[in-house]
Design a protein that fits this description.
This protein is an alpha+beta fold and 196 residues long. The chain has 7 helices and 9 strands; from the N terminus they run αβββαβααβββαβαβα. It has a single domain, classed as 3-Layer(aba) Sandwich (Aminopeptidase), CATH 3.40.630. A hairpin with a 2-residue loop joins strand 5 and strand 6.
């Protein structure tokens, strides 16, 4: 992309172009936003994911209520409110543009009408690029991820990108793939005209 001003990269159209090639933004401790394109990528295969049995049982009994896109900005702000965060105020402002274009979505977990967990990510055609999640009560973010996976599968999404492998994600069947494999999945995802 031949744009020199980093602020231009945060315009919705340009952000989507960068996401569409597999890049994602993170602010450093000085607030500077850099775009990353790792050679190894982690995905949760939508045709071969796992929901731990203990979590399934927990969700059957939990008094959680789930919503989509009811409070996207609220979810982003809670994800950002950590001692060390890559979600800067400038990035939050940029995300607002993607809320306006309908390319950023959240899964929210409520307990007694309080937001206790959730996650958000960016969509482009049949791809969902997971960005961050939070939990204020036990199992809330994991439950949100289960709801997301099932929803994406139902809607016909091809790709759930989770960027980096973690122990938390491994239990859901998250797997590392080469960037070439990731690009092949992106191509398949972009053949789908699906709605979140």
């Amino acid at each position: 992309m031949d744009l020199l001003d980093p602020k231009d990269l945060l315009k919705p159209r340009n952000m989507l172009r960068l996401y569409s090639i597999g890049a994602f933004p993170m602010a450093d401790e000085n607030g500077q936003i850099n775009w990353y394109l790792p050679e190894i990528r982690t995905i949760i295969p939508l045709d071969n994911y796992n929901v731990p049995r203990s979590l399934r049982k927990f969700m059957e009994k939990a008094d959680f209520k789930y919503e989509f896109d009811k409070n996207i900005l609220g979810v982003i702000r809670v994800c950002a409110s950590r001692e060390h965060t890559w979600i800067s105020e400038e990035l939050i402002e940029a995300y607002k543009g993607l809320i306006d274009t309908g390319n950023i979505h959240s899964v929210e977990v409520y307990q007694k009408n309080k937001l206790v967990g959730g996650l958000y990510g960016v969509t482009y055609k049949g791809a969902f690029f997971g960005e961050s999640m939070f939990s204020k009560v036990s199992q809330a973010s994991k439950s949100a991820l289960v709801i997301l996976i099932k929803h994406l599968k139902k809607q016909g999404f091809v790709l759930l990108d989770v960027q980096f492998q973690t122990e938390h994600l491994k239990m859901f069947g998250a797997t590392e793939i080469s960037f070439k494999e990731f690009e092949n999945l992106l191509e398949k995802a972009y053949e789908r005209d699906v709605m979140f």
